[in-house]
Design brief:
This protein is an alpha/beta fold and 392 residues long. A hairpin with a 4-residue loop joins strand 9 and strand 10. The protein starts with a strand and ends in a 32-residue tail after the last helix. The structure holds flavin-adenine dinucleotide. Flavin-adenine dinucleotide (FAD) binds next to helix 1, strand 3 and helix 9.
C-alpha cells in the first residue's frame, strides 16, 4: 500500500524504527513526540542479531559499525570468586552464525542515527512537543488530539509511547504496570578510571543471590556501561533519572568480586542512576480498527534477556512489511498483530522466568548448568526482514 499517511505516537527507538521502515516503503509518516527535544537516556544497549538484521535493512549498517562495539567474547562470572564460569562466542563467529552482528551501543547514538535517517527522508516527519491526549476513528481515518491544542489526521495511528502508553490506556483500558520487585542501577564509567586489563571478557554478567551485574564497553571502548539488578519491595519510582549514591550501590553488592566493586566505586556520581522495574501482562490483541500498538507500549518486559528494544525494532520491520504486501490497512494490521503477538508474549514470559532463574538459582551451579539466555532460547535466529508474515 502506498499513498497512506501513518501517525506514530512516540519517538523512542521503536517509534523511530517504525517510521524509517515505513518511509522506505513509500508510506508517509508523522512521528509525534511529547518531549521538546529528542533524547535517549545516558546508558548502553545490547542490540542482538535478530534486531540488527532490521536496522541494517533500514540503512543503519554504517552507523552500527561506526558507533557500536562488537565484543569478541562474553562470559558469566561467579558473584563472589569472580571465576569465569561460562564463555560465549560473540564477534565475527556470532555474526557468521546469524548473518548479522551483536552490537553494544550508547542508546543516544542509536536513537540519533535513527532520527537522522528519518529526517533525511522527510524533514517534516518529526513533531516535538506533541503529547498525545486522545483519538477517535471512523471510516475516513483517525483524528488525534494533542495536549498543546494541535490536532492531526491520518489513515492509521501507531502507539509507540512506551510502558505507560496513553494510547494503550485509551484502546485497552488504563491498567497500571506491575512493579516487579526489581531495582536497576545504571552507571557509565570512563575507561581511564579503571585499572588496565580489568574489563575482560569485554562483555560479562556476574550472577549471584538476588543480584546480577552486567557490564560492557561502548563508544569505541572509552566508556564502560553497567546494569546492576537487585530485588527490593520498598521502592517504586519508575524513572531513568533518579540519582543514586555510589555508596548505596556498593552497599548493595558487599561481598562481590573485586571487578564489580572496582567498577561501581569508579562511577562518577553524576553517572549513577536507579529506577524500579515494571512490566505488564501480555495483551490478547494490540489492534483496534485503524490503530495499533508497537514496542514497549504493546509488550513491556524485564531486561534479563536484553530484548525489549529488539522486540520493538522487530515490530517495526514486520509492521512496514505488512503494509507493503497488504491491500488494506485492516489486512496490514491483522498481519502485523498475528506475526508479532506470539513471539513477543513468549519473550515477555521468558524474560520474567530468566529473572527468577538468575536471582534465585545457586550461582555455584553455573558451570554445570549454563543459564538461559536470549541465544539459548533461539531468539537470535529470527530475521524480521525475511520471517513469514502471518494472519492472511
Ligand atoms: C535496565 C534496562 C536495560 C535494558 N537493556 C536492554 C538491552 O540491552 N537490549 C534491548 O533490546 N532492550 C533493553 N531494554 C529495554 C529497552 O530499553 C526498551 O524496551 C525500549 O527502550 C523501549 O523502546 P520504545 O520506543 O518502545 O519505548 P520508549 O523508549 O519508552 O519510548 C517511548 C517514547 O514515547 C514518548 N511518549 C510517551 N508518552 C507520550 C505521549 N502521550 N505523547 C507523545 N509521546 C509520548 C516518550 O517521550 C518516548 O520518547 C532495557 C530496559 C531496561 C529497563
Amino acid at each position: 500500500m502506498t499513498g497512506l499517511q501513518i501517525a506514530i505516537i512516540g519517538a523512542g527507538i521503536a517509534g523511530l524504527s517504525a517510521a524509517r521502515a515505513l518511509q522506505q516503503r513509500g508510506i508517509g509518516v508523522r512521528v509525534y513526540e511529547q518531549a521538546e527535544q529528542l533524547a535517549e537516556v545516558g546508558a548502553g544497549l545490547t542490540v542482538t542479531p535478530n534486531a540488527t538484521h532490521a536496522l541494517i535493512a533500514m540503512g543503519l549498517a554504517d552507523d552500527l559499525a561506526r558507533l557500536g562495539m562488537q565484543p569478541a567474547r562474553g562470559g558469566a562470572r561467579h558473584w563472589r570468586t569472580g571465576e569465569l564460569l561460562v564463555e560465549f562466542e560473540r564477534g565475527a563467529g556470532l555474526n557468521q552464525r546469524y548473518g548479522a552482528p551483536y552490537v553494544q551501543i550508547h542508546r543516544a547514538d542509536l536513537h540519533e542515527a535513527l532520527a537522522r535517517a528519518v529526517l533525511a527522508h522527510d524533514p517534516d516527519s518529526l513533531l516535538l512537543g506533541h503529547r498525545f491526549e486522545s483519538l477517535s476513528q471512523d471510516v475516513e481515518g483517525v483524528a488525534i488530539k494533542f495536549a498543546n491544542g494541535a490536532g492531526a489526521h491520518a489513515d492509521v495511528a501507531i502507539g509507540a509511547d512506551g510502558i505507560r502508553s496513553a494510547m494503550r490506556a485509551q484502546l485497552f483500558g488504563a491498567g497500571q504496570p506491575r512493579f516487579t520487585g526489581y531495582i536497576a542501577w545504571r552507571g557509565l564509567v570512563p575507561i581511564d578510571r579503571l585499572p588496565p586489563g580489568l574489563v575482560d571478557p569485554p562483555s560479562c554478567i556476574s550472577i549471584g543471590p538476588q543480584h546480577t551485574f552486567t557490564r560492557y564497553l561502548i563508544r569505541g571502548g572509552r566508556v564502560l556501561n553497567y546494569v546492576a539488578l537487585a530485588e527490593r519491595s520498598d521502592w517504586q519510582v519508575e524513572s531513568w533519572s533518579i540519582r543514586s549514591g555510589v555508596g548505596e550501590l556498593l552497599a548493595e553488592f558487599p561481598q562481590w568480586h573485586q571487578e564489580v566493586r572496582t567498577i561501581i566505586a569508579a562511577t562518577p556520581p553524576e553517572l549513577c542512576f536507579k529506577w524500579a522495574l515494571f512490566d505488564r501482562e501480555p495483551l490478547g490483541s494490540w489492534t483496534q480498527g485503524r490503530v495499533a500498538l508497537l514496542g514497549d507500549a504493546a509488550h513491556p518486559m524485564l531486561p534479563f534477556l536484553g530484548q525489549g528494544a529488539a522486540m520493538g525494532i522487530e515490530d517495526a520491520m514486520i509492521l512496514a512489511r505488512a503494509f507493503e504486501v497488504s491491500a488494506s490497512h485492516d489486512e496490514a494490521l491483522r498481519r502485523y498483530e498475528a506475526t508479532r503477538i506470539g513471539r513477543t508474549s513468549f519473550v515477555m514470559g521468558k524474560s520474567r522466568e530468566a529473572g527468577l532463574e538468575y536471582h534465585r538459582a545457586d550461582a555455584e551451579d553455573r558451570a554445570t548448568h549454563p543459564h538461559t539466555t536470549a541465544e539459548s532460547l533461539g531468539l537470535f535466529t529470527y530475521n524480521p526482514v525475511l520471517a513469514p508474515l502471518q494472519g492472511i
